[in-house]
Design brief:
A hairpin with a 2-residue loop joins strand 4 and strand 5. Helix 1 crosses helix 5. This protein has eleven helices and 17 strands. The longest helix has 23 residues. It starts with a strand and ends with a helix. The chain has a five-stranded antiparallel β-sheet. It has a four-stranded antiparallel β-sheet with strand order 1-2-6-3, with helices on one face. With about 400 residues, the chain is an alpha+beta fold. Keywords: Amino-acid biosynthesis, Aromatic amino acid biosynthesis, FAD, Flavoprotein, FMN, Lyase, NADP. One of its GO terms (cellular component) is cytosol. One of its GO terms (molecular function) is chorismate synthase activity.
């Protein structure tokens, strides 16, 4: 399985093409629209989320709600393009009238300046920000929705939630009270902040409200948990085959993510071996299992069968309504940075995006290991493999 996305933030369309999804998978546009709506909703989001509602259209690869095994093309129309059609026109030459919204003053922390240098966009940094915008993650969530649909066929569940926004934190100790991710999902999705408790939800709202009043932005952390993955996906044989490494790359590849950890992560550096190694046990019914999950479901770059736990660090959005110092790329004179319409925080959306990226990498790992031509054959192989592992 592989995919690519295309589209600019204010362009007419956002597009993704997915290759390698098995034939026979039942999927509807509503399956994807649900996930797109989750990305758009969340406390701290900006005006654009009220302007348009993202909905997907299948252009290829699906017939009568069943995948064909051929490339799947997903399309999301940008309603906001109506106000930008002249500015973003691909077939008209540049004129004074259609280049009025130039970006000449790069934002600290954004791709504006470095991207302009790299691609020689001397006259307008909008050529950078249109693609480097997190708007592109719309299509990664769409691809992730397809991946999650596939994973559910083999009883793999994936869910993301918010750990903290600024100083306001969820109490991770409450995770132990949930029997499965369905129970956890029902709680975190009931809060606009995607927090774990009502107390954390209120505290996070207060932080976001104050940040907005201060014309500032704020970051945070999100966590993704995946359950039900077969043992042994990934490999210790080559560094680039380690599945946790692939997931780490996928997480840090999301806009604004600056760090990633598995299980106890960075806290494990302050502990001793007997405190964090997941001791091994055996049961006649389920075979080998671990007594704890401090390593986040991985050993040697391979899945252990325990829950996969991934956390990502999201920096504050670089567009501030109280802009920071910058320099005009045309005059080289000091100015305040450009202001583009933005959110106070994207952490609530980032939980959904991170969830999608983990799902994509897990789906790729499954399809690398098992038959990728037909979904029923894949399920048969997964079931046989699970039984083999159970009897080891």
């Amino acid at each position: 399985m592989r995919y690519t996305t295309a589209g600019e933030s204010h362009g007419p369309e956002e597009i993704a093409i997915i290759e390698g999804i098995p034939a026979g998978l039942h999927i509807t546009q509503e399956d994807i629209n649900e996930e797109l709506a989750r990305r758009q909703h969340g406390y701290g989001r900006g005006e654009r989320q009220q302007i348009e509602t993202d909905t997907v259209t299948f252009l290829t690869g699906v017939r009568h709600q069943i995948t064909l095994g051929s490339p799947i093309t997903l399309n999301v129309h940008n309603d906001d393009h109506n106000s930008w059609s002249k500015i973003m026109a691909p077939n008209d030459p540049a004129t004074p009238e259609n280049t009025l919204r130039k970006v000449l003053r790069p934002r600290p922390g954004h791709a504006d300046l470095v991207g302009g240098m790299k691609y020689r966009h001397h006259n307008d940094l909008r050529n950078v920000l249109e693609r480097s915008s997190a708007r592109e993650t719309t299509m990664r969530v769409a691809v992730g929705a397809v991946a999650k649909k596939l994973l559910r066929e083999i009883n793999v569940d994936v869910h993301g939630f918010v750990v903290n926004v600024g100083p306001a934190k969820s109490d991770l100790n409450v995770l132990t009270q949930y029997k499965n991710l369905q129970e956890l999902r029902a709680v975190t999705e009931s809060f606009a902040t995607r927090a774990l408790t009502a107390e954390a939800d209120e505290a996070i709202r207060q932080v976001i409200d104050k940040t907005k009043r201060d014309a500032n932005t704020v970051g945070g952390q999100v966590q993704v948990i995946a359950t039900g993955m077969p043992v042994g996906l990934g490999s210790y044989v080559s560094a680039d085959e380690k599945l946790d490494g692939k997931i780490a790359r996928a997480i840090v590849g999301i806009n604004a993510f600056k760090g990633v950890q598995f299980g106890g992560g960075f806290d494990n550096s302050e502990k001793y071996g007997d405190q964090i190694m997941d001791e091994i046990f055996w049961d006649s019914e389920k075979g080998f299992y671990r007594g704890t999950d401090n390593l986040g479901g991985f050993e040697g770059g391979m899945t252990t069968g325990e829950a996969i736990t991934v956390r990502g660090v999201v920096k504050p959005i670089p567009t501030l309504y109280r802009p920071m110092k910058s320099v005009d790329i045309d005059t080289h004179q000091e100015h305040k940075a450009s202001i583009e319409r933005s959110d106070t925080t994207a952490v609530t959306a980032a939980a959904v995006i991170a969830e999608s990226m983990v799902a994509i990498e897990l789906a790729i790992a499954v399809l690398d290991k098992f038959d990728a031509d037909n979904i029923e054959r894949m399920k048969e192989q997964v079931a046989a493999y699970r039984e083999e592992i159970r009897k080891f």
